[in-house]
User: Which sequence fits this backbone?
């Protein structure tokens, strides 16, 4: 709903329901495979095969085996054959989300739903291929298609064409907070009455430029990512996508949809400390955690699980640990917290969305994913660090943090639906 | 109930191939003559069909460049910083204690550093510069603005075609209405590079590439008489589809060109003078609209924000009613 001076006042905020979500991650394709993998404490990192990493310190990442066959959705065969890896992940996640939502595409026309997506690199692999061919001054054959496919607009167009979304598509590129920002802003569209249905998500695929970038910063672990471990030595990258279908809670109940969760809170802020390093005490993280919980109407003692940003780098985990302790105060010892990046890697623009999906899987199944391979934990971890898979049948409220380059900080809070919504 | 407050376009800034500041931009636009351009080629290439209009070096040293955050910033980061600084400086509204948010839009982003870094990776990844990589991310320039202006508030970078600027204006209006911020810098910028020019040649057959940035400062007002230019409306971005391509959306005409009530920014004239600076062009169009209303020349101006491959939107600025 666009802005117009003199608009009538709009109704107050309305609760936002998640009625469908889907994901693709190194743990597998779909909710079932991911739930099974995380519940079993599996680690899904392996040697990178997509590009040459022989010249780098690190060689492992969360690389996905994409399902065989054409991508889901109604793309023409010729277009479906052209899509890049990142778009394929996005389409697989969207297919699962739409199927769960019960949103039906009309015989003529589209599903009236804007789309908000987060990504840090989009179809960077196509950009890399374009660069190589252009600088080597090889034939221009294929270059136009690479340029066209590289643009985020093309990925958005594929998504809308495949599933019949009207759009428009807004791309938020805030580094590692992109996916969380996208879900949060999509939620705001619904909460404030600007849209009645919104598709939201985040995605990123492994690519050589970004892998080398993190390696150049010596941010990649030469061993294994061990978030919150006292001797942690870096992160591992991963790839994946998650997509959510959001609508007003009242509308979802009215059409008899299954409400999977309520998107109860969202907050974003900027950490000005440094382009790549967080404030040591996690000031911006504290701010978003407090604001998101205030929006959700909950206090720290009521939060049953935190899926932390927890990259495994010395600086992030320390800052986030401080922020969590400051946020929770005396209740911190009772707040179960884990990072799933030790299991699947850091999915960058896809992280916020995939980790939100993991939170919902945990909430649905009544379990908590583990923070693997900790060993001796960082003394800054005053919270209840979940080191092995754990049952959590009473999990009702969960929070997920995402922090990125440029100081982009975002926190989402989800609430389990009331029994009447099951 | 959530009231819809009045939103002022409190300030504007620009960097263009005409120079650093709104003044040279508006003067060049008024004259209407295409600025000089230079050949532009991939390294090692012989002749080139590519042309560009670069931003000239600033005549005077820019004070904000002394900030440590900008020391290694990409060209587009500096363009954005200059345009945003001018927008903030030109605002006469009360700025004390306000929460300033930032929305930045771009089409291509920090392409020069990205290309340089990837070249180093292909040569020898073990020696690729860690100084370059962080400055390649899309939101690095916007984060520098936050550091420059002391903003801890929400800061988004939107990537897309020209219609993304309409989305940015709409998002800024929403934040101001909802109380998420007291003021929002809406900025857009691009830097020229041979690979982007090559891409333009491939997809569009040629043309002159430009570079630069534009910035607007949006603020909630309480009927402040100093708020001479108001955000009158932002049209819904209509996404292109198989059924409705670029030429088939209602937003192409800016929403109300037909009724003749408002002037319409001639975006073609902007491109003819300054070149195709992708995501910066819509911001320049918005600055031109702001200037036309601010000077009293027009009572209202519509800005077509027609994207080349994603969607079409529009916005309208209006003078405060007398």
Assistant:
């Amino acid at each position: 709903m666009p802005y117009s001076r003199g608009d009538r006042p709009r109704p107050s905020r309305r609760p936002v329901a998640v009625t469908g979500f889907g994901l693709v991650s190194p743990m597998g394709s779909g909710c079932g495979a991911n739930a099974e993998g995380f519940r079993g404490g599996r680690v899904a990192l392996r040697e990178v095969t997509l590009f040459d990493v022989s010249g780098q310190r690190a060689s492992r990442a969360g690389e996905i085996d994409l399902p065989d066959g054409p991508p889901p959705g109604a793309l023409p065969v010729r277009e479906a054959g052209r899509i890049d890896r990142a778009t394929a992940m996005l389409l697989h996640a969207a297919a699962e989300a739409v199927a769960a939502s019960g949103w039906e595409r009309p015989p003529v026309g589209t599903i009236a739903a804007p789309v908000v997506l987060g990504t840090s690199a989009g179809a960077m692999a196509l950009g890399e291929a374009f660069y190589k061919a252009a600088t080597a001054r090889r034939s221009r054959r294929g270059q136009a298609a690479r340029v066209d496919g590289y643009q985020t607009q093309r990925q958005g167009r594929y998504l809308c064409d495949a599933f019949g979304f009207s759009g428009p598509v807004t791309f938020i590129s805030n580094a590692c907070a992109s996916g969380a920002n996208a879900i949060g802003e999509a939620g705001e569209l619904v909460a404030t009455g600007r849209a009645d249905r919104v598709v939201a998500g985040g995605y990123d695929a492994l690519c050589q430029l970004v892998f080398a970038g993190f390696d150049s910063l010596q941010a990649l672990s030469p061993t294994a990512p061990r978030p919150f471990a006292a001797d942690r030595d870096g992160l591992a990258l991963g790839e994946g996508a998650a997509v959510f279908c959001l609508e007003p809670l009242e509308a979802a109940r009215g059409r008899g949809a299954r409400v999977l969760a309520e998107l109860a809170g969202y907050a974003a802020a900027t950490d000005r400390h440094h382009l790549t390093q967080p404030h040591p005490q996690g000031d911006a993280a504290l701010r978003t955690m407090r604001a998101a919980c205030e929006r959700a109407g909950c206090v720290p003692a009521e939060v049953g699980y935190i899926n932390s940003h927890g990259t495994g780098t010395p600086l992030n985990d320390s800052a986030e640990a401080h922020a969590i302790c400051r946020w929770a105060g005396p209740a911190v010892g009772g707040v179960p917290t884990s990072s799933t990046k030790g299991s699947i890697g850091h999915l960058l623009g896809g992280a916020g969305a995939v980790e939100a999906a993991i939170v919902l899987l945990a909430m649905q199944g009544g379990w908590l994913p583990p923070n693997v391979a900790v060993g001796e934990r960082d003394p800054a971890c005053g919270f209840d660090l979940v080191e092995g898979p754990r049952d959590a049948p009473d999990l009702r409220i969960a929070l997920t943090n995402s922090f990125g380059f440029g100081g982009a900080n975002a926190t989402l809070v989800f609430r389990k639906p009331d029994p009447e919504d099951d | 109930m959530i009231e819809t407050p009045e939103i002022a376009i409190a300030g504007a800034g620009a960097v263009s191939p005409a120079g650093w500041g709104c003044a040279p931009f508006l003067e060049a636009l008024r004259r209407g003559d295409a600025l000089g351009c230079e050949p532009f080629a991939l390294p090692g290439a012989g002749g080139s069909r590519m042309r560009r209009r670069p931003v000239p070096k600033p005549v005077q040293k820019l004070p904000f460049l002394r900030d440590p955050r900008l020391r290694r910033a990409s060209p587009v980061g500096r363009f954005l910083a200059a345009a945003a600084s001018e927008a903030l400086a030109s605002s006469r509204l009360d700025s004390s204690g306000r929460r300033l948010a930032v929305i930045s839009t771009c089409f291509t982003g920090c392409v020069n550093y990205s290309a340089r870094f990837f070249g180093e990776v292909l040569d020898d990844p073990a020696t690729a510069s860690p100084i370059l990589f962080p400055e390649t991310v899309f939101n690095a320039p916007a984060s520098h603005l936050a550091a420059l202006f002391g903003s801890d508030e929400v800061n988004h970078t939107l990537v897309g075609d020209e219609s993304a600027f309409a989305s940015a204006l709409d998002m800024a209006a929403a934040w101001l209405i909802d109380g998420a911020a007291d003021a929002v810098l809406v900025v857009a910028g691009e830097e020229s590079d041979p690979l982007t020019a090559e891409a333009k040649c491939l997809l569009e057959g040629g043309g002159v590439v430009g570079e630069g940035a534009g910035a607007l400062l949006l603020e909630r007002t309480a009927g402040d008489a100093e708020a001479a230019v108001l955000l009158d409306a932002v049209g819904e971005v209509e996404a292109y589809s198989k059924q409705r391509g670029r030429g088939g959306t209602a937003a192409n005409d800016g929403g109300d060109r037909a009724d003749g009530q408002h002037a319409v920014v001639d975006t073609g004239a902007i491109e003819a003078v300054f070149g195709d600076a992708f995501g910066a062009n819509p911001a320049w169009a918005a600055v031109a609209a702001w200037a036309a209303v601010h000077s009293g020349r027009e009572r209202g101006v519509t800005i077509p924000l027609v994207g080349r491959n994603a969607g079409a939107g529009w916005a309208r600025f209006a003078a405060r009613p007398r």
Summary: Chain B touches chain A through 86 residues (CB under 8 Å).
